[in-house]
Amino acid sequence: MYGCINDWLNNCKHAAEPCRNGGYTTKDCKCACPLGTTGANCENFIMSYNDALVKQISPDSTNITTPDAEVISPGYYTLGSTQDKNYTQVLRAPKCQRAVATFEDFRLKKRSSEGEFRCDANSLEIHADVSVSAGEI
């Protein structure tokens, strides 16, 4: 819009943008890499920007793709119900297969008898056909 990046490319003596995967050259001639990429030129693609953003904001969130994986909520048994944690666990099945979740133990804090009778400490939401990379959580 303002041509800053073109000016920086010229000042850095770059004929073309050396940064990859959505990165861009900064005024100090280094690449500013988007989340989910690493390397001097952002050449290593680790995960999508949206998945990396979810991981940064909610580090306990995971994508589960391994068959027969055991999933345990972060802090389960040790933190009790006093620790508030927000996270997403996405079960992703291979193409033409489906994800199945079996709960062997499941605990939620009792609904409060105070105020509006809210269940504000624990909750579980199950969605079908979600896509973290498309921002549909």
From TrEMBL:
Residues 31-42 form the EGF-like domain. This is Uncharacterized protein LOC108678683.
